[in-house]
Amino acid sequence: MASRKKTLLKVIILGDSSVGKTSLMNQYVNRKFSNQYKATIGADFLTKELTVDDRTVTMQIWDTAGQERFQSLGVAFYRGADCCVLVFDVTAPNTFKSLDSWRDEFLIQASPREPENFPFVLLGNKVDLEPRAISAKRAQQWCQSKNNIPYFETSAKEGLNVEQAFLAIAKNALAQQNSTVDLYNEFPDQIKLTNTQKTSNNGDSCAC
Amino acid sequence: MCDTPFKSPYPHKNTKARHLHQKSDSDESINSETCSTNSNSGSLNDLTIVALFDEQQRLYLQRLKDRDNLCEGFFNCAEQTKLLYDEWEKAVDECIRLRNEVDKKIDDGNEANRSLKNARKMLDEEIKKRKLAEQQRDELQHQIAKFCNAIVKDSRNKLVDDAKEQISNLYTGRMSFGDPDRLSAIKEVNSTGSILSDFSFSRSEDDLDSSRCHHRPNKEWTKRQQTDNLEEPASKKRKSSTSKAVDIGTTETVRATTTLTVSKDGPIKATSIIESVPRSDMEHLAPPDLVFESWGRQEEKVSSQFQDINSNYRQHTFQPKIVVMPNTCSVCEKNIRFSKTALKCKECRLMCHMECRDLMPTPCVPAMNTPSAKKFTGTIADYTPTSPPMVPALIVHCINEIEQRGLNELGIYRIPGSEKDVKGLKEKFLTSRLTPNLKEVDIHAICGCLKDFLRSLTEPLLTQTLWQDFVTAIRSTDPNDVAPALYETISRLPQPNRDTLAFVILHLQKVAQSPECKMPTDNLAKVFGPTIVGYSSGGYSGDPDKLVEESRSIVKVMAHLLNIPGDFWTNFIKVCLTPSTHKLQQTPSTDSLLRPTASRFYTPRSEGRFRKKREGKFFGTPPAYK
């Protein structure tokens, strides 16, 4: 019942500039890859409907700008995210190194209920390019150290693994949503309010 | 005694002891053991005590003697040790002395090596020069021979005796100028190839110049060389510049400035800058539509020489200084030794070895005000020199390096550098007095440092107060209004902001033009918009919608700024050239241009340009001036 209330999943893509965040999103949503070398302003989002476990969900994918100065802006979009996708470029070691700061930044700004259980997904993009600077093993190790984050190696250019990665993202996001909705249900505040109202009504009737 | 039963040892011993004592003292030593055991027993009498006391005393005396012996031995030992210690100390001293000597020798060796290298370089240069000179000489000889032959053969009858004599003089004069002995003197050295030959490596360029000039028939050349030397005997760098001003239109002047820099052992540089400037007021901002047409023709040349302008527009003002406090050379990052002479730039306070002077990072950017040197953030004015162009050293050096290495780097300024490197580099720039060596640093880290510096200013380059004006300017409905409104707003910027902005934008335009970078104007605008333009409220408050809206305007403003023609921005950067060009205008060089060639020879003022134009045709100009 609760899950049917909200089938909109908010997914945020984060990572350094020029790792291929926009390309990944475009490849997934539009199945297109553009060779244009274009930076993103602020943030942008696309939506895509998909079926997960016989349920139709709308995934809202937020593509953020990797430029340092736009980060102050991106913060506004972090809130209410159901899943955070971290992207790095397997050919650029710096982009891998800054993953930690991206993750921390997200957790601070989005302040999810359970920071340690919040679903992240790591994508190592540009696997079609040579030479590789970050091995799959190293990325997997990082994932293990961060509470077993799922890791996918993708290529936005060739559409490699993109579909699978986003499906996993959707599943993770959905799981997150279900758990938070359950949490909401556990709060008894609303019921108590109506109870007090009833009791007050009773009191009134007594006085009469 | 051993046979006696164990039960009765004491009485037996006691009696024996008593008896012995009575007998004599001499035997006591034998029974001393027995006596001492007796002392432990309960049955003692006076006699035994006395005997025991004597015994003890005797022993005591013996011990004392032993102790004295021991003491003596110990003293001997100590004395020996002392002697050994002294010797050891001497050895250590010797060691230190030897080590110092070795150090000194190594230093000497290094010094010798360095001078050897210099000498080799000079020698090579000289050989090159000589070859050229010889070539020229041969050519001239050939020409003269032909010329003489022609005259003598064809028109001998018509020539007057005087002319004949002159011709023959000329001929012989030329021949003597080509005296093989003089030139082969250097050749000998070359042929031995030995560094130990008695060829003096310390001979300076000037010496060689004048010595070669001696056998030129043209005496004036030599003379001028000498006067030149007399004028600035101590200076190591001679600079002769000329400028000519030709009126072209009613409002514009095209000025050609040739700067010839002759340094003692470095390369000789000649730079020409051709610029057109409005005649009325140099300091005044020239609207781009007023810029003379010749810009179109010269633009490419000027932009290709922009690097030269960059490196020439402010040279270091070196002062020799004897080092007392340990100091580091800002070129090779090695220590400058105590009591050595080093060069210190008056303006930017950088120091370097005498040998490193040519490698000093240029342009010289005067040191910033001391108080802000310790702060990490401030407005741009806290970092800029106080004289125009007011561009912080960090920006100048980073941009110079990026223009040297980064202009074909894909995604320059977009790809982030390692955060650690960026922070480290920035800190080095802002806290140390040295200019960090950028040659080894990752290019993206340098870009990151530049961006980080601009971003961390307390106020963005375009200032908070003018932010709204810039946005209004680009929102103008009529596209023709946009440019004038922007120019007007830019002119209201404080000078440090304006100069820095101009410098950065000129650089970014170059980046945008490089196809390998794949960073056209709109990409650069997205990257630099938030950094240079900034948000109206500092970007940390307000609702997201407003921020998104603002960020789109920001990028538009930046794109417009990047699309303003480079000429407009160059005006701000070139301000610094104005004083020097003014000075040059006052020299009589312009007149000398109009005189007949013969008199031009001897006008010392026009020397620089003259050498450049006429080299090799009238007298062999040292090829170095080419």
TrEMBL record, chain A:
CDD domains: Rab7 (cd01862). The keyword Lipoprotein applies. One of its GO terms (molecular function) is GTP binding. Signal peptide: none annotated. GO terms for cellular component: late endosome membrane; lysosome; phagocytic vesicle. Keywords: GTP-binding, Lipoprotein, Nucleotide-binding, Prenylation. This is Uncharacterized protein. It comes from Psylliodes chrysocephalus. The lineage of its organism: Eukaryota, Metazoa, Ecdysozoa, Arthropoda, Hexapoda.
UniProtKB/TrEMBL annotation, chain B:
Residues 1-40, 203-248 are annotated as: Disordered. Residues 29-40 have a biased composition (Polar residues). GO terms for cellular component: centralspindlin complex; cleavage furrow; midbody; nucleus; spindle midzone. SUPFAM superfamilies: Cysteine-rich domain (SSF57889), GTPase activation domain, GAP (SSF48350). The keyword Manganese does not apply. It comes from Psylliodes chrysocephalus. The keyword Lyase does not apply. Residues 315-364 form the Phorbol-ester/DAG-type domain. Residues 203-226 have a biased composition (Basic and acidic residues). SMART domains: C1 (SM00109), RhoGAP (SM00324). It comes from the Eukaryota. One of its GO terms (biological process) is cell differentiation. Keywords: Coiled coil, Developmental protein, Differentiation, GTPase activation, Metal-binding, Spermatogenesis, Zinc, Zinc-finger. Transmembrane segments: none annotated. GO terms for molecular function: GTPase activator activity; zinc ion binding. Residues 106-150 form a coiled coil. InterPro entries: C1-like_sf, PKC_DAG/PE, Rho_GTPase_activation_prot, RhoGAP_dom. This is Rac GTPase-activating protein 1. Residues 378-569 form the Rho-GAP domain.
